[in-house]
Amino acid sequence: LLTLALGTLTRTTAQAPAPGPAGPTNITAVLTKAGQFTTLIRLLETTQVGDQINTQLNNSNQGLTIFAPTDNAFSNLKPGMLNSLTDQQKVQLVQFHILPNFLSLSQFQTASNPLRTQAGDSNNGEFPLNVTTSGNQVNITTGVVNTTVSNSIYSDGQLAVYQVDQVLLPLEFFQSSAPAPAPVGGKHKKKGAKVADAPDDDSDDSGNASGAGELIVDQFGYKMVGFSAVVGVAFFMLW
């Protein structure tokens, strides 16, 4: 009887299916399980950045680090701000929360600033993201927002997700565009200046001299009046 029981147990064990491989990493599933990230999940879906994250994680060995703002963080934004963003800006906003490499909490201590995000090159001043550490605390600054990593949500050696209590707003969204150069206008005439009339063909030499004297006075000031008078008297005496 004992032999029969052992044989049955052996056959049952052999027929049991082996545990299946772990399912593919899904950022939406990670955030849903953690809770309080409804707004971020919606942005990941509408911008399709979530699909890009999942594809990258499951088809390459490249790691990612994600800063995940809570629903309260989004609710603390200026009313209507999200709706005022263009579709491209919404994509950039989500990508600004993603680092293209895996960083554990301890690795932030040796990270080089500014950190490069998926939103763009941080060296040109458009999407700067800087971190400093104090013990186990990680401080983040964007030039607009200062916050800290408040919790580690998920980490598997390839994907790290950290909770932040403020939305990381990139400086690019608040850069004021340079004013357009003023149109180049024509030269303004000097106030009070007069333009001498062109002399008639039958004007005598004295008329020409008088006109020239007026023009000189208008261009160089009243100091030339006396000089013009002296020249006129001298010319008359010599004549």
TrEMBL record:
It is found in: Cell membrane. The keyword Phosphoprotein does not apply. Coiled coil: none annotated. Residues 181-210 are annotated as: Disordered. It is a lipid-anchor; GPI-anchor. It holds the Pfam family Fasciclin. The keyword Transferase does not apply. May be a cell surface adhesion protein. This is FAS1 domain-containing protein.
